[in-house]
Structures are given as C-alpha cells and as structure tokens.
Design a protein that fits this description.
It is a single chain. By secondary structure, the chain is α/β, with parallel strands linked by helices. It folds into three domains: 183 residues, HUPs (Rossmann fold); 49 residues, no CATH class; 91 residues, Elongation Factor Tu (Ef-tu), domain 3. The chain has nine helices and 17 strands. A six-stranded antiparallel barrel has the order 12-15-14-13-16-17. A hairpin with a 4-residue loop joins strand 5 and strand 6. Helix 1 runs parallel beside helix 3, helix 1 packs across helix 7 and helix 4 crosses helix 8. The longest helix has 20 residues. The C terminus is likely disordered. It catalyses: S-sulfanyl-L-cysteinyl-[protein] + uridine(34) in tRNA + AH2 + ATP = 2-thiouridine(34) in tRNA + L-cysteinyl-[protein] + A + AMP + diphosphate + H(+). It is an enzyme of class 2 (transferase). GO terms for molecular function: ATP binding; methyltransferase activity; tRNA binding; tRNA-uridine 2-sulfurtransferase activity. This is tRNA-specific 2-thiouridylase MnmA. InterPro entries: MnmA-like (IPR004506), MnmA-like_C (IPR046885), MnmA-like_central (IPR046884), MnmA-like_central_sf (IPR023382), Rossmann-like_a/b/a_fold (IPR014729).
Length: 380
C-alpha cells in the first residue's frame, strides 16, 4: 500500500535523483517534475549543466525513466522572474547583497511548486535538500532540523518554511552524507551518478552579478569614489553593484596595508574601505523575521546564528525589536556583516527561523531597542 503521493522536484542532479529513488524504495507513489524557471541565450550557451538548462531537463527525464516514475516539466518562468529575479536586482541597486536561493525556496519551490502539487492531487512534495523535517508531539509543531552532514547542510536557505509547507515536505537525504548519496546513485545505475554539483547561481552562470543586474534592469551603475572612513579619497570605483562587504579582490587600490570594503554609501555613491580589523561588529539588526519552530518571539533567547550560508553558527542572544525587526548580540565579533544576507538562528539542531540583515550595530543599540515581555507576534 502506498504511503502517499509525492511530487519530487528533480533538477537533473544527483541529490534530487537519489531522493526520488529512495522514495520509490520506501513505498511512496512518486512522480518527478522539473521546474523551468530561467533560460536565456547567454546563460544557456555558457553552461549546459545548471539546474535551469535544457540538458538538466533531459537528465531528470532519463532518471525518471530509469526508476520507473512519471515525469513532468512545469513552467514557473514568470513567477521566478517576478518573485526572485526582480527582488534580487532591486536589492543590488539598494546596496545589498541578496541570497536568491532563499527567495527561490520561499516563493517558488515551497510555495508555487507546493500549491501546484496539491492542486494535482499530491500529498507531499520532496526535494534533494540536505535537512530534516521533525514533528514535536508536545507542541504540535513541525520544525526544520540540521542534516547529518554539516558540510552539505542547506537549512540556512530553508529558514522561511512555514508550518503548512513543512507538513507537506519530505527530505529523504536528511540522514545521509554526500558520499552515501553518490554510492546509492552508482548502485542504482542512475545516469547522473557522476554528475558534478552545481556551484553557481542558476541564472548567473558566469558569476558576474553586476553584469546581470545591469542587463536585466537596462541600467548602468555610476562610478564614484573609494574613500576611507575619515573621507580621504583613494580612487574611483566602477559602481556600487560591483562590490560587497568584506571584498578585497578587484578593488585596484594600492595602499600601505590591505583594504577591504567596509560599507556602501548609497546617498553619496561612495565605497568605504578599511583594514580587516575594522570589518568586525558584535551586533546586527535584521528585519522581516520568519519563525517556524515556534509561534512568536517575545523574550531574549540564547541561540547560535549564521550570518551567511558558509559561516559557522556563532553563539548569540536574539532580541525582539519594534517595527518587525530583531537584534542579535554575538558572544564574539563577526566579520563583514552584510545587508541583504540572511541571519538564521538555531537552537541545538533545530532551525528557529531567520531574518534579513539590515546592518551591523552596537550592543547598546540592541539593548535600548529590545522589546521584552510584550508578547509581540513574529510568527511565520
């Protein structure tokens, strides 16, 4: 007897292919589907391995045939353009460094794709993400938990998942390490068993974000001045969208010691440079928080927090602030806190939620603005 009908999001890569194979083996009624979200001539010519390429669709189709499941291609190009590409580009023009994978997960994979699956009569969706969905009988709530493989854990990019989404989500790879996933693919004879993992953003396959932002928006970034914090002009920059906090490479500035991007000053079109030791801050302010492991945040809480995808989770205290904002004070200073990136909070192995970083801050700013005991609802 089937455990339920599952629509598996298949990218043509080894992870989603093995996820589909495991679900078949575990007795689910499985169908595969690839989301077509982005294709243009430049990106298609540059890379034939990305999750958006025509060859990826063919790879997924071959895997589906190998494991004996139906397969569809679903068109989400308009949704992706509106809900991922446009906000990504807008964020760059605002001096931020966004994470488009979080936008895609939030709006496309676990919203549009899930709703499509439910409309088609499926009970669940599944992906090849490395993470685990757990259920707390005592609280009656679902939560996202760390995967078995720290190096491949992807929960940072999944923090926006809601209770409804988690209740319909299967993550078959959550208890596996990457090496075992490869072994399963080889043992099953999957045609993508030796396929390389994709490393780049699917719609910017040459990693030239500034080029993409300018072409998409038909705008050209304005050159301006590189300056030190005291206002000393060091040279000219190519436009703010070419830089991110903490960057050293590509500045073209000769100085008595290495310089890094400390801040992007939108009002004066200036890039502030500083020594590495000046990039550290002990606190940050973030907005638009989403919490799924609990219904609300009303008191300070000890957590571990990641300020970017590949960062190590660091001990911190999380504070609710006014105006749909939160603050974090870290036990140790954090390097290059970057507006537009997500800060994701963990308690033991559970993902509590996260928010979008606005800026670095001081401890005093957070403590003065903290709202404690007012039962403010920050529910996701």
């Amino acid at each position: 007897m089937s455990k339920g009908k599952v629509l598996v999001a298949m990218s043509g890569g080894v992870d989603s292919s093995v996820a589909a194979k495991l679900l078949v083996d575990h007795g689910y009624d499985v169908t595969g589907a690839t989301m077509q979200i982005w294709q243009n001539e430049r990106e298609e010519n540059h890379c034939d391995r990305g999750c958006c390429s025509l060859s990826a669709v063919e790879d997924a189709r071959r895997v589906a045939a190998k494991i004996g499941i139906p397969y569809y291609v679903l068109n989400f190009k308009d949704d992706f353009r509106k809900q991922v590409i446009a906000p990504f580009v807008d964020a760059y023009w605002q001096g931020e460094t966004p994470n488009p994978c979080i936008l895609c997960n939030r709006h496309i994979k676990f919203e549009e794709f899930l709703q499509k699956a439910l409309m088609m009569g499926f009970d669940y969706i599944a992906t090849g993400h490395y993470g685990r969905v757990v259920y707390n009988q005592a609280t009656g709530r679902y939560a996202l938990a760390l995967s078995a493989t720290t190096a491949k854990d992807q929960t940072y990019a999944l923090y926006t998942l809601t209770q409804q989404q988690l209740s319909h989500l299967l993550l078959p790879l959550g208890d596996l390490v990457k090496e075992r996933v490869r072994e399963i693919a080889l043992e099953a004879g999957l045609p993508v068993a030796n396929k390389r993992d994709s490393q780049e953003i699917c719609f910017v396959t040459d990693n030239n974000y500034a080029r993409f932002v300018e072409e998409f928006s038909a705008r050209t970034s304005r050159p301006g001045n590189f300056i030190l914090s005291d206002g000393t002009v060091l040279g000219r920059h190519r436009g703010l969208i070419h830089y991110t906090i903490g960057q050293r490479k590509g500045l073209g500035i000769a100085y008595k010691h290495p310089l890094f991007v400390k801040a992007l000053r939108m009002d004066t079109n200036e890039v502030i440079l500083a020594a590495d030791e000046d990039l550290y801050a002990t606190a940050l302010i973030a907005n638009n928080p989403v919490w799924s492991a609990w219904p609300k945040l009303s008191e300070p809480l000890s957590v571990k927090a990641k300020i970017r995808y590949r960062a190590t989770a660091a001990p911190a205290t999380l504070y609710p602030l006014a105006d749909d904002q939160v603050g974090l004070i870290f036990a140790e200073p954090q390097r290059a806190i970057t507006p537009g990136q997500a800060v994701v909070c963990y308690k033991d192995d559970l993902v509590l939620g996260g928010a979008t970083i606005m800026r670095g801050a001081t401890d005093d700013e957070i403590l003065k603005g903290a709202k404690c005991g007012d039962d403010t609802n920050y529910s996701g």
